[in-house]
Sequence to fold (291 residues):
Amino acid sequence: MARATSSVRHHDDMPRTRRKATRRLGDELRVKPGTRVRLADVDPAETYGRTQETADDELAADLARLTDFQERLWAEHRHKVLVVLQGIDAAGKGGTLEHVMGAFNPLGCPVHAFKVPTEQELAHDYLWRVHARTPGTGEIAIFDRSHYEDVLVVRVLGLVPEERWRKRYDQINAFEQLLAVEGTTILKFFLYIDRDEQRERFQARLADPDKRWKFRMGDLDTRKQWDDYIAAYEDVLSRCSPEQAPWFVIPANKKWFRNLAVAQILADKLTDLDPRYPPPDEEIPPDLVVD
Ligand code: AMP
Ligand code: MG
Fold:
């Protein structure tokens, strides 16, 4: 536990014992600006003192908050929220969408999965397709993969020359800064599993006829480049986590903890935004009776 996330943990002056009892998962898992993240120092099976039994109640309460606050956010039509989900294959992006974002009303929650760019997308700059999917007022937009693929898979496979992808960290920071200044709240989650966990999940997919479709032979090539992806992720986490667009490194070997952490961080942020139902239209008489 002491070892886990030591490099992404914020050391404040609160005594350690008190901190343990009071700190929210968002404070534990957020990558502070200027931190050099080393994923070897993060334990992907960490649970911050939770057990699956205690987590069930905590998760239920957080999901209820998500449902409530998202409805208010939608009704108020003031805030915009962007949630980015990244992770290596089988890290659980789909499961997180299902179990956490399932608390949202789909009407105010556009989800977009970014795939290999189409010919038309490739004819534009890499942020073109991304900007078009950012949230409007009242919306919580969810990205399943994102512009970060343009410094992850693109870097690892060498799809553009290094001199181009090297510049993208600053470009991405500037892009997210623009969104933030214009009123978008940004939260980015890196779901972190280790190589053994991925092997088990792949093997389970292969063994289950209902899950086999999720597996592609190409996933094995990506797995062979594990260390390159980890290095690319470390650069993303270290270089692109400013105050207004933080990354959270989510220990994701345990699905129940992953769900709890993402749900709690989202719910705490929505609570901070404090969206309120708008007042009724002033033209409506308070004692109006509908017959
Ligand atoms: P999946 O999320 O498993 O459906 O797979 C989507 C695939 O699209 C992954 O292999 C990603 O690496 C790939 N992909 C997403 N964005 C990009 C991008 N900008 N350039 C190249 N490949 C990408
Ligand atoms: Mg896949």
Notes: DSSP finds 13 helices and five strands in the chain. The pocket of magnesium ion (ligand 2) is lined by residues 89 (CB under 6 Å). The two ends are 63 Å apart (CA to CA).
